[in-house]
Amino acid sequence: MTLLRSSVRALRRVVIAAGAALLALALFTPPASSVVPEPATPCATEPATDPLRYVIVFDEGTAERQARREITKECGTPIEYYPRIAVAVATSAAPDFGQRIGLDRAFSAQAARRANLGNGGRQQQRPARDGHETTDRSGEQWDMRMINAHRARQAGIRGDRDVVVGVLDSGVDASHPDLADAVDPRLSANCLTGTPDTRPRAWRPTASPHGTHVAGVIAAADDGIGTTGVAPGTTLASIKVIGEHGYADPESAVCGYMWAARHDMRITNSSYFIDPWSLPCTNREGLDVAREAIGRAIDHATKRGTTHVAAATNDAANLTPAVGAEAGCEALPASIRPVITVSATGEDRLKSGYSSYGLGVISVAAPGGSGDRCVLSTAPGGYRELCGTSMAAPHVSGVLALIAAEHPDASPERLRQRLTANTQPLPCPDDYDLTGDGTQDAYCTGYRAYNGFYGHGMVDAVAALGLSDVSTDSRN
Q1: I need a surface site. Which of 12, 97, 292, 444 has the fewest CB within 10 A?
Q2: What is the rounded distance in angstroms from the CA atom of residue 277 to the CA atom of residue 315?
Q3: Whether the model pTM is above 0.90
Q4: Could you give the CA distance from residue 192 to residue 51 in angstroms, rounded to a whole number?
Q5: From the CB of residue 9, how many other CB atoms can be counted at a distance below 10 Å?
Q6: Catalytic residue numbers?
Q7: What is the fold of 52-107?
Q8: Coiled coil where (predicted)?
Q9: φ, ψ for residue 75 (rounded to 5)?
């Protein structure tokens, strides 16, 4: 009994000591709220406002998990992340999302358009008639004769199915008879949201004939019906980056170039400019972000073996890079190296009045048309004549496709060299008074072999392919 009582007393002492310890812990431990970090600022949203889309540039090497976590923390929803270039696409209904992430890293073309309605965007193209003929219309293609594409075909040169040209545009009509065998649905995608959508109805054209016209210049079939492209037999990928209202946003272009790189496309054709700017001739908010994001995508694709072609735009602007503190005009992607940027000429070989230009930016020239003499090519339901640098660029993409078919192992730099070293030189005009009012409409700088109007000169399919034994008469 003595042993039992002693054990009970000892147990009581243990219980009392434990209770005292718990009481002390309760009295002297700070409340939990005083040791937890302050909650993040609530995510504010604007009533009845759809989320806006942003392109976001992270430090190179940023892991996808880290990027997505930061976007979510700052009230955004990650849509796509391209780890190889550390560029993300996200949406957010928070009006201060850009400030949260940092305006030096994030940009929304949608927000910029909403703040400045009516500024920027639509490709300038001359309305023209549709054609539904089933006859051979190659005789109307003065543009093909100007670059000697017809001579290359006469020499037996054709495109190659293994050479893929990504047409970054408004969608390509794969049901058109001249393009049905060219467009590869497996390589086509809609990039409007910044992430690829491969459903056929997503990448096909809806409101615009633009992409189908560009595609026809490159690779319309040589079948004796309608028109014939520069490189018939080449494979085309329809990569939709121009939306219903004619806008091409930075995230769409990034997605397009990354898609082309992913599928090892040899060439991309970009007959558009990035919105919301018509043409930024001064610093614009978000321009640096857009340039960085698109530049990274282009560089990545170039390293993967893709050569890029872009239209110079139809703003008649001088794109010569600014020196020092001077303000200059800039067009994306036309002003980004290593893009091959193309100016447009009319049938008279004179720079078209609408065509932008600039020493150090323009690589080569090609026919884009002027006045009532435009470029005939494919369009949904038939054929159409359009003028623009948009039409000039695909002539160059077509010639590059022919070179790539003949030189399958050539690097982008090698393709570029072969193209630019074998052109028809075009000197600066002595007089560029298009309106006849006694005032020069633009000033050409440089010399015969390389200048701001024509770069290295008019692209030439025969010369670029080294077909010295083929007679040429590019003026016919």
Answers
A1: 12
A2: 11
A3: no
A4: 15
A5: 9
A6: 169, 210, 390
A7: Alpha-Beta Plaits (3.30.70)
A8: none
A9: 80, 30
